[in-house]
Design a protein that fits this description.
The structure is a homodimer of 284-residue chains.
Chain A lengths: L2 E2 L2 H21 L5 E7 L3 H17 L2 E7 L5 H13 L5 E4 L9 H5 L13 H9 L8 H12 L8 E5 L6 H10 L3 E5 L6 H5 L4 E4 L17 E4 L3 E2 L5 E2 L4 H4 L5 E2 L6 H22 L1
Chain lengths: 284, 284
Amino acid sequence: MAKILSGKEVVAALNEQLSKRAQALEEKGVAPCLAMVRVGERQDDIAYERGATNRCKRIGISTKNFILPESATQEELIKVIEEVNNDPSIHGCLLFRPLPEHFDDEVVRNALLPAKDVDGITNGSLAGVFAGTDQGYPPCTPAACMEILEHFGIDLNGKKATVIGRSLVVGRPAALMLTSRNATATVCHTRTVDMPSVTREAEVVIVAAGRANLIGKEYFSPGQVVIDVGINFTEEGTLCGDVNFAEAEPIVAAISPVPGGVGTVTTSVLAKHVIEAAEKTLAK
Amino acid sequence: MAKILSGKEVVAALNEQLSKRAQALEEKGVAPCLAMVRVGERQDDIAYERGATNRCKRIGISTKNFILPESATQEELIKVIEEVNNDPSIHGCLLFRPLPEHFDDEVVRNALLPAKDVDGITNGSLAGVFAGTDQGYPPCTPAACMEILEHFGIDLNGKKATVIGRSLVVGRPAALMLTSRNATATVCHTRTVDMPSVTREAEVVIVAAGRANLIGKEYFSPGQVVIDVGINFTEEGTLCGDVNFAEAEPIVAAISPVPGGVGTVTTSVLAKHVIEAAEKTLAK
């Protein structure tokens, strides 16, 4: 039976640690604050906004909402981002994307200062992930994968780690973060030939394939650690991951569940980045 | 006996193609031009500058040299870069690095417009490599590896490709470029456990280990294509690669030599990027 890498346990540990750091900041006169910039009224943006607000509140991070109508112009949005950049009381910023089609995504996201880019959307943050430096912040989802591995004491040093998926927000940054942590990282994707033979060789497998229950028993071998990034709904409306959990769990050594895994940890990682950004203002 | 992936052959083909494109540009009133910005008098910078100037001249690209004394201030250097950015007759810019220690490398390199960053040093170019888009340009050395593979018709689609080395200028961008070309890419490095067992599994191996003759027969298996990025001098003063050529060549299917391999192709790739940048100004 595999060890279940519960996101709740990671979140509890993170929240405890972050609350203390938030308090220490308050004592030094710094009130950590996250700006959330939303254009329009997309339901999933609003849901994430609510989750992030609650998570921040519990930790001791205040939030500041900037909400623009869907008809807002690019100039109006960039003016808001510049306001965030120039406001020393704001330490991090979450910009909801995708933006409505009349915005130039490249221009808008790079208007944000990397130092406040706690969700890893700017080219500056990307360069930081690429180089393994602390310029900007990595996207929260691959960072949540690393947080889970670290919490459960899973050493990556010299380990073979394979990522399924090559997206810009998960697969590619996850592979670079694994490389920076001294793992030997491989990226698999739809064009990989005989993917199961590749993933079975790995000691750690991060699955971000984007399809419900796609990754079955043939992909796994005994002793592996599996992190499932997928968030999908079955036809019956049940939440599930990209891994066929029932097939994988009896084989591998440890696996993160869905729900209750990576998705649970992302808002805590966002909060962690805000705390780090606030701490950096003190260090200056 | 392995096929020798001769850089000269790639250069000859590239030069012919690029000369035609340069002529076509001239006919449309665009004279492709590369700016080279150098601070100080480092011998290897001057040697590369000479090589790049000759290569460009033969193809029909003019060059414009900006030379600052080693004592130049950051403001002076950035002023030169801004001049390059604002001059529509300049299409690409090569900035020699490392810069003297009193410069902030991050600030200086990102002062250059990604559209003119033909050597892939800005965060914008890095984001393009990361995403596999044509924003900016990839660094010339990993791009030269891709050029060699393409010239010799080596299909990467679905192939296992392993990179030895995780540097920012070769290993990491090479792995991302392989991923964008549908290969299943793995990055090995000094912390990889039993590296030979990993590289023997690959169909394409790009070696950027940075040490003379380090990679011997135990790393290779029959049928492989090997690209050697290394440029080293033996104790006897002979130029050699990172691969022990005498050991690898009898085993593998194809291998790029040193000298006469990747290093030969980099200035042609630089010229190709300048031509592309000039062509983009027409498309606007």
